[in-house]
Each structure stands twice: as C-alpha cells, then as structure tokens.
C-alpha cells in the first residue's frame, strides 16, 4: 500500500492531522494498535482551549462539541477555605469548553470514516524504516498478515509509549524530564455538577479538582500516591477526602454521587527534542508530556498537527521544505510555554512532601496574588485559554 503521509496512532494528534490533511487534499493512512471501541471509550482529558474549539469548528468537526460541551468563561481557585474566581473571558476575551477527549475522538473518527479514509485499527508490531531517505515506510501486522505502507512522510502520533520516538537516533535527541512524586486519583460519578465552573483546590491534605462531563456525570480528581491502588479507596473514603479538600468555609459543598469509574495516573513533564529526523516527524504525547493540572496535553497535540499540516501543505503545493525544517523549532515554542505553565500550576496547587511551612506559605501567597492582582490573573488566564502559546507562534 502507498500513501502520501503515513500516520502512526489514532489519538487526537493522528486523527486530527489526517482530517486536516484531507481538507488540504493530501492523502494519509492512520495505523492504530487499539480497536475503534477502545479509543472511543478511554477516559482522558476534558478541557479544550479557545484555539482548539475554533479549529474543530472551522474544520467542520465542532458541531457536537458546541451542542453537548459546556462553554466555561472562568474557573475557581479554592484555598485557605475560600474560593476565588478567575474570569477568563473578562481577562482574555476567550473561553474554554469542557468536552471529553473520547467525544472528540468519536467526532474525528466519524468524519474520517465518512470521507472514506483508510484507518486501520488493531495493528501490531509497527516499525519505521527508511526515514533518512525520501522513501520511508511503516511495517506492521494486521489480521495475521505482514504489511508495508510506503509513504513520503511518517508522522509519529503514537503517544508516550509509542515506537516512533525511538526511531530518532539517541545521539540527536535530547530529552528533558521531571517526574512528580504524586499522582491523580480520578473518578467519574453520577449526579449534578457541584459548581458552574471547574474548581482547582489547594489544601494541606493535597490538591483536588472538580470538573464535569455532562449535567448528569461529573469528573473529579484528588492528589494521591502514584503507587496507591484504587482498591484501597472505598466510595466513602473518596468522598470524605474530596469534601475535606474542596468544600469551602463560605458554605460551598461538593455533591456526592454514585462512583462508576476510578483510576490513578502518574504525573510527568517530558520534552523530547528534536521532533524531526529526516522524513519522520513527532506530534503530541509522542514528543512531550505535561502534568494534567494545566489541561494542556490534548491542546498541544492539536496545535502541533496544525503547524505540521501547514508545513506539509507548503511541501506538496509549493515544493517548499522550509516550514517542515522549522517544524520542531516552531512547535517547541508553544510546547515549552505549556510545559512551564503546567509545572507552575502543579507546583502552586499540590502538597509537596517535605515542603517547609515557609514553602507552604509561598504557595498561599502566590494564590492570593493571582486572585487579587489583575496582572497576575491575566498571566494565569492567558496561559489557561491558550492565548500565550498562540503568541509564541505568531511568526508561522
Ligand atoms: P494519545 O492520545 O496517547 O494517542 C496515541 C495513540 O497511538 C496509539 N499507539 C500506536 N498505534 C500504532 N502503533 C504503535 N506502535 C502505537 N503505539 C501507540 C495508541 O493506542 C493511541 O491511541 O496521544 P496524542 O494523540 O498525542 O494525544 C495526547 C492526549 O491524549 C493527552 O495529551 C491528553 O489526554 C492529556 N490530558 C489532558 N489534555 C488536555 O488538553 N486537557 C485536559 O483536560 C487533560 N486532562 C489528560 C488529562 C491526560 C490524563 N491522563 C490519563 C494522563 C487528564 C488525565 C487524567
Ligand atoms: C478533566 O475534566 O478531565 C480535566 C479538567 C481540567 C484539567 C484536567 C482534567 O486540568
């Protein structure tokens, strides 16, 4: 089989890239290890930046997001028993939408299938070849047979555990990493929202986040030991912990409900440079990871492939390679902005084991500052909605 662009991975990066390329008249094939059912039901992110919302809408895959997602104009920071609002729209003129990642995936798969795209689910033994030539290929197994996909470019959108990053020679790669000594315990529960907007809470017992999925399903997280097991946490214990961390002294109480999903995720910051080697390009989690506190991962994946699709378009339509050559440099500006923001939010809101009382007071001082100074609040807001990252890339 032959195509112009071979894409490994059907996460947000791979599917959205395939969709963008299709709109530009460029053919692609997407290879994915998991089944369609699996990718359409894995619970992950929830927050879409203004730029992501706009891109999905402009490219014709934003209809259900608009109808079923929740448009939020602000969020709350909870600390020292109080809640203080960050008015995103007043501070930046922009907003965010809370819409589950697997719903974005469903919309993208539906659009690709409707356009007759070649999406191969359930592949195994993916490997990348010839990326230092102009005839690269991807080998894989599908339904018991070995296949080779020949293409002009290979795009690694295969997430943090994929194979494509390893295809870049170690000597050319520089990896940057920070592993946090805590994780997030996530739940989905039945019931009404506890609040009109998301609540990010700093408490002596640890961080908590109150998010939502729909009028009847809520998403909540609390900081935990990444090595803990969900089996150690009864529903009663979970609710006691969430109440202790997220209820306020001003009369706000979160609303309990029947818990139907529990999981624990570790937290990591990671950037791999370079994001290109020969005819191989990396996008999304394959090249970088952020802790979820800043809600940036999915948005960065979308931003990467937006840059890449323009560069590939310039190659096919104008025979230009300069945008492809600059892809890594261009994408990394936004990525490092998001890395810093996610690290900053994480450090300000989480309980750091061994932190001195002085260091704990610094966290509170910072929260007081971002909730009282318009200048400081604007820094937070423009990063959260993604405007700061967009400014990093104005020279596209
Ligand atoms: P994905 O989504 O991991 O997709 C990669 C796909 O590649 C497939 N694959 C392979 N296919 C073929 N051959 C191989 N060898 C392959 N190896 C892997 C995988 O099966 C998979 O389908 O990466 P992508 O597309 O780069 O997208 C990244 C996002 O998924 C990720 O950054 C976000 O989920 C992060 N994230 C959040 N991001 C946000 O923007 N806003 C949020 O609110 C937010 N909350 C979160 C999050 C991530 C979380 N977890 C679970 C880490 C909350 C949590 C709890
Ligand atoms: C979510 O709703 O899953 C969510 C929201 C905000 C975050 C991370 C995750 O920062």
List the helices and strands and how they pair.
Layout: E1 5-8, H1 12-23, E2 28-31, H2 36-39, E3 47-48, H3 50-58, H4 63-68, E4 70-72, E5 74-79, E6 82-87, H5 88-92, E7 96-98, H6 101-114, E8 118-120, E9 124-129, E10 137-142, E11 145-150, E12 153-156, E13 174-190, E14 199-201, E15 208-212, E16 217-224, H7 235-246, E17 259-273, E18 276-277, E19 280-282, E20 288-289, H8 297-318, H9 322-325, H10 327-349, H11 357-370, H12 374-384, H13 387-391
Parallel strand pairs: 1-2, 1-12, 2-8, 5-14, 12-19
Antiparallel strand pairs: 3-7, 4-7, 5-6, 9-10, 10-11, 13-16, 13-17, 14-15, 15-16, 17-20, 18-19
Give a concise summary.
The protein has 396 residues and is of the alpha+beta class. Helix content is 36%, strand content 27%. It is built from 13 helices and 20 strands.
């Amino acid at each position: 089989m032959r195509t112009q662009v071979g894409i490994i991975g059907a996460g947000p990066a791979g599917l959205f890239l395939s969709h963008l390329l299709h709109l530009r008249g460029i053919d692609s094939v997407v290879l994915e290890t998991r089944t369609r059912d699996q990718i359409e039901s894995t619970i992950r992110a929830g927050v879409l930046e203004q730029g992501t919302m706009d891109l999905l809408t402009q490219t014709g895959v934003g209809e259900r997001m608009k109808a079923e997602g929740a448009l939020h104009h602000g969020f709350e920071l909870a600390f020292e028993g109080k809640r203080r609002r960050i008015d995103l729209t007043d501070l930046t003129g922009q907003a965010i939408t809370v819409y589950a990642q697997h719903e974005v995936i469903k919309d993208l798969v539906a659009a690709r299938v409707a356009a007759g795209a070649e999406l191969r689910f359930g592949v195994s033994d993916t490997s990348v070849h010839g990326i230092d030539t102009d005839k690269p290929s991807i080998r894989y197994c599908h339904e018991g047979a070995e296949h080779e996909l020949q293409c002009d470019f290979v795009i690694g959108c295969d997430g943090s555990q994929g194979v494509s990053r390893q295809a870049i020679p170690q000597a050319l790669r520089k990896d940057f990493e920070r592993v946090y000594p805590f994780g997030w315990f996530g739940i989905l529960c039945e019931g009404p929202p506890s609040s009109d907007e998301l609540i990010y809470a700093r408490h002596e017992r640890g961080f908590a986040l109150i998010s939502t999925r729909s009028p009847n399903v809520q998403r909540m997280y609390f900081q935990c030991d990444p090595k803990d097991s969900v089996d150690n946490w009864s529903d009663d214990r979970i609710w006691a912990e969430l109440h202790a961390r997220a209820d306020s002294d001003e009369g706000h109480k979160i609303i309990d409900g029947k818990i139907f999903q529990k999981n624990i995720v570790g937290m990591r910051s990671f950037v791999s440079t370079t994001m290109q080697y020969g005819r191989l390009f990396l996008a999304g989690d394959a090249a970088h990871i952020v802790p979820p506190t800043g809600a940036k991962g999915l948005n960065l994946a979308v931003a990467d492939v937006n840059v890449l699709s323009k560069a590939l378009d310039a190659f096919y339509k104008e025979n230009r390679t300069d945008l492809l050559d600059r892809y890594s440099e261009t994408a990394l500006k936004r990525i490092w902005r998001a890395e810093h923001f996610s690290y900053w939010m994480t450090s300000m809101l989480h309980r750091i084991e061994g932190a001195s009382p002085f260091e704990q007071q610094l966290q509170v001082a910072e929260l007081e500052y971002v909730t009282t100074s318009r200048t400081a609040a604007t820094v937070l807001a423009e990063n959260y909605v993604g405007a700061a990252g967009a400014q990093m890339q104005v020279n596209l």
